Amino acid sequence: xxxxxxxxxxxxxxxxxxxxxxxxxxxxxxxxALGGCRVLVVEDGSGAAEQRRMTEMVSAWQAQHPVLxxxxxxxxxxxxxxxxxxxxxxxxxxxxxxFVDADGSISADEVCRLIRLxxxxxxxxxxxxxxxxxxxxxDVRRRFYRHLIGRMYATLVSEILHIPVYDSQCGCKxxxxxxxxxxxxxxxxxxxxxxxxxxxxxxxxxxxxREEAVDWHEVPGGKVRLLHDSILMFLDVLRIRKQRKEHxxxxxx
Length: 253
Ligand SMILES: Nc1nc2c(ncn2[C@@H]2O[C@H](COP(=O)(O)OP(=O)(O)OP(=O)(O)O)[C@@H](O)[C@H]2O)c(=O)[nH]1
Ligand SMILES: [Mg+2]
Known about the structure:
By secondary structure, the chain is of the alpha/beta class. It has helices at about 25-35, 50-65, 80-90, 110-120, 145-160, 175-185, 195-205, 225-250, and strands at about 5-15, 35-45, 70-75, 95-100, 125-130, 140, 170-175, 210-215, 215. It has one domain (about 5-250): Spore Coat Polysaccharide Biosynthesis Protein SpsA, Chain A (Alpha-Beta Complex). The strands form two sheets. Strands 3-2-1-4-7-5-8 form a seven-stranded mixed β-sheet, with helices on both faces. It has a two-stranded parallel sheet with strand order 6-9. The two termini are about 35 Å apart. The chain binds guanosine-5'-triphosphate (GTP) and magnesium ion (MG).
């Protein structure tokens, strides 16, 4: 295990050309300085005009930031999870697979802190996931009703799936590549609930996962339709629970 493991960080983007400029250049500058990281922006099916804008922006930033890879552009929309996994498939041997949301809700400094923490602990001590814990000493700013629905969803996930996770949905996670590769064949969720399935598979396979409280602030322009997507995500959680049972029965047979 290497203390300075290479981090392959995917930034999934769906119509993000309006928001990413406030985050990606700063993130890349900080990761250039940190060293041992690669940033891959994955844009899937947001239309020709949006994809042209993203291509232009990313190639301009690439000229300044060696950390930034060529934009991965996919013709069809495959969901946030689909985009993250497509990006992770291009890991080129990195020790850590990671993603961070494009809107900068988790700052570049916080991303660097999580990477440092993951490296200090080492890949054998497992995944690190960001968690929005409203507590003294942390700065978490989210509109009240979003906080409420988010907490309801997170509590349901934890109760229904019996995993003691506080915040399954926070938009930054780092997973040791070898842990991910061991569970990847059983991951089928490509929408917003993909991280729930990822966590369940890691926990069930005995891989350690640690939540780290982060500073987080809501950035306007999010694409999640609160009620609609929460219902879809809830149905995904029920499906994940069913598939988990089938998987466990398959292992026992
Ligand atoms: N590539 C790709 N990225 C997606 C897709 N859906 C969402 N994303 C990205 O996932 C990240 C999180 O999306 P947001 O719209 O910020 O949603 P959120 O952070 O869960 O929720 P709020 O910001 O609170 O609305 C962003 O980087 C989005 O661009 C998708 O279908 N494809
Ligand atoms: Mg967001």
